[in-house]
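tool=predict chain=A
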Amino acid sequence: MSDQIKFIVDNLNKEPFRKNYNLITFDSLEPMQLLQVLNDVLAEIDPKQVVDIREEMPEQTAKRMLSLLGILKYKPPGNATDMSTFRQGLVIGSKPVIYPVLHWLLQRTNELKKRAYLARFLIKLEVPSEFLQDETVADTNKQYEELMEAFKTLHKECEQLKTSGFSTAEIRRDISAMEEEKDQLIKRVERLKKRVETVQNHQRMLKIARQLRVEKEREEFLAQQKLEQKNQLFHAVQRLQRVQNQLKSMRHAAADAKPESLMKRLEEEIKFNSYMVTEKFPKELENKKKELHFLQKVVSEPAMTHSDLLELESKINEINTQINQLIEKKMMRNEPIEGKLSLYRQQASIISRKKEAKAEELQEAKEKLASLEREVSVKASQNREFDGTEVLKGDEFKRYVSKLRSKSTVYKKKHQIIAEFKAEFGLLQRTEELLKQRHENIQHQLQTTEEKKGISGYSYTQEELERVSALKSEVDEMKGRTLDDMSEMVKRLNSLVSEKKSALAPVIKELRQLRQKCQELTQECDEKKSQYDSCAAGLESNRSKLEQEVRGLREECLQEESRYHYTNCMIKNLEVQLRRATDEMKAYVSSDQQEKRKAIREQYTKNIAEQENLGKKLREKQKAVRESHGPNMKQAKMWRDFEQLMECKKQCFLKQQNQTSIGQVIQEGGEDRLIL
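tool=predict ok
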């Protein structure tokens, strides 16, 4: 059970739940909180189950969860009677019912998600045969079945493709990425080669760099190996210390032990093991075989109908009545020998049952002790690794563990009883409210009908008369019955008492002496035990209680301090904001214009007005620029053309001056003549 709870807590702390539970907080959950945790797990499997169970009726919650668990093919342990207890435990949030369900769901979450997804499409709707006579309904049903089969085939193909592990798109992306990386590396290597070739003795330098890289890798490997060896040495030293401590404790226990006590302990273990092998295990094996034979017989028989069940119930009732009649006849005979034998048989059966119960308790205690010893060893090793402090050992630790175990079991039982009472009280309160509402509605309807008929108050008087008459008749019958039964019982008891007294007189004498001895010995034992327990456990229990109280008060103090600092910061922020708001209101309401100008509102309005004016000016300027853009561009072009024309004239003028210095050009008769 502890391994099961640990598995549940570990999985609930992981994604996607992230509950942040530990074993104590999870075990102390209320039934409604436990049902909410179960509902969250079911909602992770099927998103349709996302519901707050506080806003839902318990019957609806149980029906919804049972239907989903049936779809997921969850089989609760036990037979038909256990099924009713399973439903009731699911309604009230019982831990023995919900823990196995959570363990089963969290073990196979992915598989159940797939099953819930497929159930949405593969659960066939049962259409009555009367509706299938219609052609349209029959055609749609046939189409529905064909689509279901097509979905099955497509789902199988999809699963095969998923499990094949090949995806063309991913492979293409990987190939393209690898090719790009290859090209980049080739280019980088070429650039580095070109740089290195210009350096003198580059081959020798490359060789030295290669050797340096190898030595660095070797240095890292040696450092890692050194760290691993240090860790191994540390663990070996810790293991040596643990073994030495165990050796000391074993030597101490062997020094205190005596051969008589060891022999006595070994004899008790041999007796217990022989009893388990010779008596208990064969009986359990026979019972299991009988149950298996009965179950095989039930499985081999055909399915039973409701009429068959009614017949079996009637036969069982008849056989029970016959058994009761035989028991009454046997009691009426009053045979003293049979009475003595039956008494001894009853005592023997009671002793055997007590023996079996004690053997089972002893076996469970041994298993718990072994598991607790394993946990103690693990925790002790962890404690030594973290703190290096020692843990309680020997008799002190055993006494502390026994007290803690008894207190924890009592606490768990009381907590479970309180949870069951709370759940039952909620159900009963709800049913009481519903019944009261129905009764009030019926009374109101009855009063209205009586007022209409003119006989108001008739039903109340009639009920009172019937109740009084029924009580009177019941009291009369009970008086007659009780008188007859009491007279008969007195006669029987007198006869039985006289017989038992005569038969048990010698046994009672012996028993009195033995009782006196037993009382004296038990008193001495209780006194010694109480003294020992009070001396050994008083201080320990007080210390543990005080430590728990101090721990709780420290946590409360830290929480209150953090809350105090947080509230102080919030108060300061609010005071600053309030001060700013009051200053703003004073400045805004005051008649002084200078103070009004200091107000943030006035500053913001002034800035807004300035920005609006600036925006208007910029828009007007933009409009003017847009309007004058075309003519200005034409004018600029004309000026550039004019500049080119003037430059051309300048060049021509310079050329003409150069020509006149060399000679003179004369035009005569339409011809140009150069005169030097």
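The first strand starts at residue 664 and ends at 668. The radius of gyration is 49 Å.
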